[in-house]
Task: structure prediction
Amino acid sequence: MAMNSRERVIKAINHQEPDRVPLDLNPLNDFYLNLKQYLHLEIEEQVKHNFAMEVVPHPLVLEKLGIDITSVKLGSPKVKKKEPRSDGYIEDEWGVVYRVVAQPGGGSYCEVVKPPLKDAKLSDLVDYPWPVPDLPGRGEEAEKNAKALYEDTEFAILGRFGGPITETALYMLGMENWMIRLASEPEFMEALLGKITDIQIALDRIGLEATAKYLQIFKASGEDLGMQTGPLYSMKMFRNQLLPHLKRRFQAARKYLDSVNPSVKIMLHSCGSISRFIPDLIEAGIDIIDPIQPRAAEMNSADLKAKFGDRISFHGGIDIQQVLPFGTKEEIEEEVKNRINSLGPGGGYILAPAHNVQADVKPENIIYMIEAAKKFGIYPHAG
Result:
């Protein structure tokens, strides 16, 4: 029996087989503009992107494609905005300064040029001008959007509120400084990560208080814990210095959700090779892992399903490094079939690109992916 998008996603994340494998798509700004042009969709909308250049597609675009999930985020606080910097750089609430860099394949990204805590001491954290979560305006837009999407559409709704913990610390310190001080200054790092976690939990709370009754998935940030070739951190460092902060955040969200909407599943994003961390993340309260980077070491999708598929769901999996930007229609179809065969049985899988879609991906390749998913993702004979 055919299901609507919300029903399809709910069934899949509860480890049951829906009518077909659900679909999701997270585009970056330039790809999204290319996609709308390719689809001949002239929609009046103010396209907004964040510092990662991510955008939330208009519902009409998602409907045209047959995507099953949309996102809601916090709105901008209603405070006087800072004057633009005279050097052309941009600065976020954390005091991190970026420049916009054009990419050779099209599109752009924000590169950190000034990590504000690069030379900070422990005492400097006390008086640092940290973001203030409880500012007017953050939750109102999220509540309005979530209510409208819940009542007027059939999409599953994913909430995304506070930002990352480890990556925020990395941006504030600079990559090299972050790695050195994580190993050599545990007291400083404990204080820094603790403060960032407090703020992200507060932002999560604002978003959840505004939207939890409408959500099916809560995405508890993005913490890139892996590289292409292996984990970014040792197991000792992960368990002793990072996991306690992540777990505190996951459990704070779970406690609130259990009081309002216990059916909501918690998702974590982490690129790279993270299979060694998954048992700890499950124990910490994660229900869905994203984005399942298939070319990373130790991330064979069949192995992941066999080891963890009864305890966790998977989101993503379609190769964004080679197949989607450079593959033929036949290669994209084969990639989709392989991922469905590996991750689809018994439910527990939402098919999507294994990261945000960038401008070097042709819109027609995403169409091929979606068509293949609808062709080969039918249950009970998925794959």
Remarks:
- Residues 5-376 form a domain with the TIM Barrel fold (CATH 3.20.20.210).
